[in-house]
Hints:
The chain is α/β, with parallel strands linked by helices. It has a single domain, classed as Vaccinia Virus protein VP39 (Rossmann fold). Helices cover about 25% and strands about 20% of the residues. Strands 3-2-1-4-5-7-6 form a seven-stranded mixed sheet, sandwiched between helices. Strands 8-9 form a two-stranded antiparallel sheet. Helix 3 runs parallel beside helix 4 (about 170-180).
Amino acid sequence: xxxxxxxxxxxxxxxxxxxxxxxxxxxxxxxxxxxxxxxxxxxxxxxxxxxxxxxxxxxxxxxxxxxxxxxxxxxxxxxxxxxxxxxxxxxxxxxxxxxxxxxxxxxxxxxxxxxxxxxxxxxxxxxxxxxxxxxxxxxxxxxxxxxxxxxxxxxxxxxxxxxxxxxxxxxxxxxxxxxxxxxxxxxxxxxxxxxxxxxxxxxxxxxxxxxxxxxxxxxxxxxxxxxxxxxxxxxxxxxxxxxxxxxxxxxxxxxxxxxxxxxxxxxxxxxxxxx
Length: 275
């Protein structure tokens, strides 16, 4: 049952105070939601009601653990309810309500720690109530070794110029992914708004030492959905014979242990320090 207090809004302000608070995770997350933490991880940032991940997990139940992140509470609730109706997916998929630009480091740290079988010299411990800088020892690289695929699909375009800062793909988010993603893992981007895709793509191309674009020219796009499973938005757009713009990046071998991602202002902006 979805609480009546939840209201569905197409657009939300990620800088609103309620979305700047770290999400509360169970102490035993992710151990209790994924039966086999050694599986590759598929991460969908901005998963909406979870239809894409649920379809993918149904068709490829043994390929990945599936994790969806969504900022809108009602959508997360709906996605979680859909999982309950698919008991065959229990232990393979989870949805977390959070602001990716606030919680991504903490979530990937938890996953990294859970999948690490040997003790390392540097361990990052971040709890839900901490407001300290999110950082690592400059000599460490907190790889989430199982993170093999990241999707950011049809994000809120935030068309108004004054709202552009609300867009999900920021330099800090790209840096977080660079720190945690292992070599050869991939990032898939798509949008039906060309300018939105181009801006997301630019953020990754500006960190080209860590992410290699599948196309040399910014005027070229990936023609097909490389995952093979469309999102609900994608189905609607294609049915209207409208274009979808896509880009694919591969994580390079370049280490990024000299990058620290740190929280800045109360609005959640973070600064990147390069040593």
